[in-house]
Design brief:
CATH topology of the largest domain in chain A: Tetracycline Repressor, domain 2
Largest sheet of chain A: none
Distance between the termini of chain A: 65 Å
Number of domains of chain A: 2
Structural class of chain A: mainly alpha
Radius of gyration of chain A: 22 Å
Number of helices of chain A: 10
Helix content of chain A: over 70%
CATH class of the largest domain in chain A: Mainly Alpha
Number of strands of chain A: 0
Order of helices and strands of chain A: HHHHHHHHHH
CATH architecture of the largest domain in chain A: Orthogonal Bundle
Strand content of chain A: under 5%
Largest interface: A-B, 39 and 39 residues
Oligomer: homodimer
Chain lengths: 215, 215
Amino acid sequence: MGWMTTTEGPARRRQVRAERAAVDKFEQRRAELASSALTTLADRGFANTSLRDIAENSPYSHGVVHYYFSDKLELMQHCIRQYKQDCVKHYDEILDTATTPKELREGFADAMVMTLRDETTLHRMWYDLRNQSMYTCELVGVIQEIDQLLEQMVWRVVSRYSELAESPSRMSSPVAYSLYDGLFLRALIDYLAGKPESAETLRRECAGLLAMLCP
Amino acid sequence: MGWMTTTEGPARRRQVRAERAAVDKFEQRRAELASSALTTLADRGFANTSLRDIAENSPYSHGVVHYYFSDKLELMQHCIRQYKQDCVKHYDEILDTATTPKELREGFADAMVMTLRDETTLHRMWYDLRNQSMYTCELVGVIQEIDQLLEQMVWRVVSRYSELAESPSRMSSPVAYSLYDGLFLRALIDYLAGKPESAETLRRECAGLLAMLCP
DNA sequence: CAAAAATCTTGTCAAGCGTCAAGATCTCTG
DNA sequence: CAGAGATCTTGACGCTTGACAAGATTTTTG
């Protein structure tokens, strides 16, 4: 046994390494294209994004898309999964650092406002894709994954707040998420409609809602 | 003076009537097309609806659209305004009939559930169009009109509830609307994803939120 | 280094889009 | 009823789309 048998000589090992490298490269290209797609989707919207647009925002030509993805839909799915990985990063560290209800309340509200300001178009895209999933059943699965992730994030905040405030939450996890989602979506729409003050409004509302959920 | 001068003889009056009839007919055709457009948008979505699709759901051929509308966008705008007229009808009568907090709470929750069940695709379309308005600034105006209408409707319910419960509301009008919108949108997504039980969940949540807003 | 495999570019295809214009058809007017 | 005007159909246009295939180019293999 061990790693030096007749069937696993140096040649074989080299081949394995090569295969792994090839796979990695393949996945890396897919990631690259998906990233270009995210950029494009963010500023042009699902309805107005063509595969050529996406390729133009990448180092490659339009034909390459079909080399790495079978379909426009498959690209979209990969796209959304990729978005998912970054979308709740900031929030968890707030949970760890906050030690008082007030701190958590304001930290969370801050984070929401930052998200609104710094990732405006990215979240516009999220809502656009989620809407698409109401028409395109192939997207339902991936969208649900992210929705779940976001719900869990909100719930971690709410239940931690409940701990710190020593008061039980008055709402279930899905409801808490729906409410915060409603607030954020409204703020986003207003923000994009040319009302920058909606950011500060969102801050107050987020903090207020948290206080309301655990009186 | 009066209506029988030399310039306003029978001929003139007939002409006026004809003109009015022509105008009415013109407006009626626009309404007819807008209605077909609403049907089409509701089941195919903004991204997948062409002017030919719309014409196919109408008694006319595709060319006629450009006889009554200068533009696809103008049709959309007319469309949305038309949707607006029906979208909050049911709710006001609940306000008039309810005499106790419980009655209002359950009446309102009922109405929301009915809307979810009976006008599923129509409201999917509403969210689709509202999303489009984040990319297409020509739509912002009309969308805001409806958003305002919906907000006012929610606010009438909340403040009436506050009266009946003899307890001041803890939330502003925009916040109340955002929260209910969040609940409804979530229920709609789940409902369309094949979870009919989300209707009953929505009922409980709507009633619960009202109770929470005015403790 | 040469053959083979992987990767990328380019050009093409049919289909569908919004828009428009010419002319058929219907309706009203004098 | 004849002519005029309003209304509607039909077919066409230039363009974009997702998809694909043939071949150029690069990378890997023996």
